Protein backbone atom coordinates (compact mmCIF):
# COMPACT_ATOMS: atom_id res chain seq x y z
CA UNK A 1 0.00 0.00 0.00
CA UNK A 2 1.58 3.34 -0.97
CA UNK A 3 2.22 5.90 1.75
CA UNK A 4 -0.22 8.78 1.86
CA UNK A 5 1.25 12.22 2.18
CA UNK A 6 -0.33 14.31 4.89
CA UNK A 7 -0.56 18.06 4.87
CA UNK A 8 2.45 20.13 5.80
CA UNK A 9 3.04 23.78 6.47
CA UNK A 10 4.13 25.60 3.31
CA UNK A 11 4.53 29.11 4.71
CA UNK A 12 3.67 31.45 7.52
CA UNK A 13 3.23 35.20 7.63
CA UNK A 14 5.08 36.36 9.68
CA UNK A 15 7.80 33.84 8.90
CA UNK A 16 9.44 31.57 11.46
CA UNK A 17 12.03 33.57 13.43
CA UNK A 18 10.92 36.97 12.09
CA UNK A 19 11.32 40.17 14.11
CA UNK A 20 8.51 42.71 13.75
CA UNK A 21 8.29 46.28 15.03
CA UNK A 22 4.64 45.86 16.00
CA UNK A 23 2.20 43.02 16.51
CA UNK A 24 0.69 41.74 13.24
CA UNK A 25 -3.01 42.28 12.54
CA UNK A 26 -3.20 38.64 11.54
CA UNK A 27 -1.00 35.56 11.36
CA UNK A 28 -1.52 33.28 8.37
CA UNK A 29 -0.39 29.65 8.21
CA UNK A 30 -0.68 28.07 4.76
CA UNK A 31 -0.69 24.28 4.30
CA UNK A 32 -0.36 21.99 1.27
CA UNK A 33 -4.03 21.03 1.22
CA UNK A 34 -7.44 22.06 2.53
CA UNK A 35 -7.87 21.26 6.19
CA UNK A 36 -10.62 19.36 7.96
CA UNK A 37 -12.19 20.09 11.32
CA UNK A 38 -11.27 20.08 14.12
CA UNK A 39 -8.24 22.10 12.99
CA UNK A 40 -7.16 24.64 15.59
CA UNK A 41 -4.43 27.00 16.77
CA UNK A 42 -3.45 28.89 19.90
CA UNK A 43 -1.45 32.07 20.44
CA UNK A 44 0.99 32.73 23.27
CA UNK A 45 3.06 35.84 23.97
CA UNK A 46 5.97 35.31 26.35
CA UNK A 47 4.30 32.07 27.45
CA UNK A 48 0.91 33.65 28.24
CA UNK A 49 -2.08 32.47 26.23
CA UNK A 50 -3.99 35.21 24.41
CA UNK A 51 -7.58 35.07 23.28
CA UNK A 52 -7.29 35.19 19.51
CA UNK A 53 -9.79 34.68 16.72
CA UNK A 54 -8.98 31.51 14.75
CA UNK A 55 -10.38 30.94 11.27
CA UNK A 56 -9.73 27.84 9.16
CA UNK A 57 -10.31 28.57 5.47
CA UNK A 58 -9.33 25.82 3.02
CA UNK A 59 -5.56 25.33 3.34
CA UNK A 60 -5.12 28.38 5.61
CA UNK A 61 -5.35 29.00 9.34
CA UNK A 62 -5.75 32.69 10.11
CA UNK A 63 -5.02 33.80 13.67
CA UNK A 64 -6.16 37.31 14.59
CA UNK A 65 -4.47 38.52 17.80
CA UNK A 66 -6.36 40.84 20.14
CA UNK A 67 -5.99 44.56 19.31
CA UNK A 68 -3.98 45.15 22.49
CA UNK A 69 -1.42 42.39 21.84
CA UNK A 70 1.86 43.36 23.47
CA UNK A 71 5.46 43.14 22.34
CA UNK A 72 7.21 39.88 23.14
CA UNK A 73 8.02 36.42 21.88
CA UNK A 74 5.05 35.07 19.94
CA UNK A 75 4.29 31.38 19.59
CA UNK A 76 1.54 30.00 17.38
CA UNK A 77 0.83 26.34 18.10
CA UNK A 78 -1.31 24.52 15.59
CA UNK A 79 -3.00 21.16 15.33
CA UNK A 80 -4.58 20.70 11.92
CA UNK A 81 -6.29 17.75 10.32
CA UNK A 82 -5.27 16.59 6.83
CA UNK A 83 -7.84 15.80 4.17
CA UNK A 84 -7.28 12.10 5.01
CA UNK A 85 -8.08 12.76 8.68
CA UNK A 86 -4.51 12.60 9.98
CA UNK A 87 -3.59 15.24 12.63
CA UNK A 88 -0.45 17.33 12.17
CA UNK A 89 1.03 19.65 14.80
CA UNK A 90 3.69 22.34 14.86
CA UNK A 91 4.76 25.73 16.16
CA UNK A 92 5.72 29.03 14.55
CA UNK A 93 7.71 31.53 16.62
CA UNK A 94 8.55 35.17 15.97
CA UNK A 95 9.38 38.28 17.99
CA UNK A 96 7.64 41.65 18.23
CA UNK A 97 9.36 44.81 19.46
CA UNK A 98 12.47 44.44 21.60
CA UNK A 99 11.84 40.76 22.31
CA UNK A 100 14.57 38.25 21.51
CA UNK A 101 14.36 36.72 18.06
CA UNK A 102 13.42 33.08 18.36
CA UNK A 103 14.26 30.22 16.03
CA UNK A 104 15.74 32.49 13.36
CA UNK A 105 18.06 29.74 12.14
CA UNK A 106 15.33 27.14 11.92
CA UNK A 107 13.45 26.40 8.73
CA UNK A 108 9.74 27.11 8.61
CA UNK A 109 8.31 24.98 11.38
CA UNK A 110 5.88 22.48 10.04
CA UNK A 111 5.32 18.94 11.08
CA UNK A 112 4.52 16.32 8.51
CA UNK A 113 3.68 12.73 9.01
CA UNK A 114 4.48 10.98 5.76
CA UNK A 115 4.64 7.24 6.39
CA UNK A 116 8.20 6.01 6.60
CA UNK A 117 9.74 9.45 7.13
CA UNK A 118 11.53 9.33 10.48
CA UNK A 119 12.10 13.10 10.58
CA UNK A 120 8.42 13.88 10.78
CA UNK A 121 6.10 14.26 13.71
CA UNK A 122 2.37 13.93 13.47
CA UNK A 123 1.90 15.08 17.04
CA UNK A 124 0.71 11.68 18.13
CA UNK A 125 2.24 10.38 21.34
CA UNK A 126 2.06 6.88 19.86
CA UNK A 127 4.82 7.71 17.37
CA UNK A 128 7.36 8.51 20.08
CA UNK A 129 10.01 5.74 20.18
CA UNK A 130 10.64 6.35 23.89
CA UNK A 131 6.95 6.13 24.76
CA UNK A 132 6.58 3.00 22.65
CA UNK A 133 9.54 1.40 24.46
CA UNK A 134 8.10 2.29 27.87
CA UNK A 135 4.70 0.93 26.86
CA UNK A 136 6.20 -2.38 25.66
CA UNK A 137 8.26 -2.69 28.86
CA UNK A 138 5.19 -2.00 31.03
CA UNK A 139 3.13 -4.63 29.22
CA UNK A 140 5.97 -7.17 29.50
CA UNK A 141 6.34 -6.45 33.23
CA UNK A 142 2.58 -6.82 33.73
CA UNK A 143 2.55 -10.17 31.95
CA UNK A 144 5.54 -11.40 33.99
CA UNK A 145 3.88 -10.41 37.29
CA UNK A 146 0.61 -12.04 36.25
CA UNK A 147 2.38 -15.29 35.34
CA UNK A 148 4.32 -15.23 38.62
CA UNK A 149 1.15 -14.68 40.69
CA UNK A 150 -0.74 -17.41 38.83
CA UNK A 151 2.21 -19.80 39.26
CA UNK A 152 2.31 -19.17 43.01
CA UNK A 153 -1.46 -19.57 43.41
CA UNK A 154 -1.37 -22.91 41.56
CA UNK A 155 1.51 -24.09 43.72
CA UNK A 156 -0.30 -22.94 46.89
CA UNK A 157 -3.46 -24.74 45.83
CA UNK A 158 -1.60 -28.07 45.40
CA UNK A 159 0.06 -27.80 48.81
CA UNK A 160 -3.31 -27.45 50.59
CA UNK A 161 -4.82 -30.60 49.06
Automatic annotation (TrEMBL):
Residue stretches spanning the membrane: 130-149
Biased composition (Low complexity): 103-113
Compartment(s): Cell envelope
Keywords for this protein: Copper, Membrane, Metal-binding, Signal, Transmembrane, Transmembrane helix
SUPFAM superfamilies assigned to the protein according to its UniProt record, in alphabetical order: E set domains
Compositional bias segments (type: Polar residues): 1-14
Signal peptide extent: none
Chain residue ranges for the region called Disordered: 1-22, 103-123
Top-level division of the source organism's lineage: Bacteria
Domain CopC: 6-96
Protein name: Copper resistance protein CopC
Organism of origin: Aeromicrobium senzhongii
Amino acid sequence: MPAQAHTSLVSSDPAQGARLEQAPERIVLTFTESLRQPSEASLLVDGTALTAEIDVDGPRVVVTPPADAADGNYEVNYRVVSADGHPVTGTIEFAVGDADAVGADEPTAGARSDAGDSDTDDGSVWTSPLLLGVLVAAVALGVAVLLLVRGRSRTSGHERS
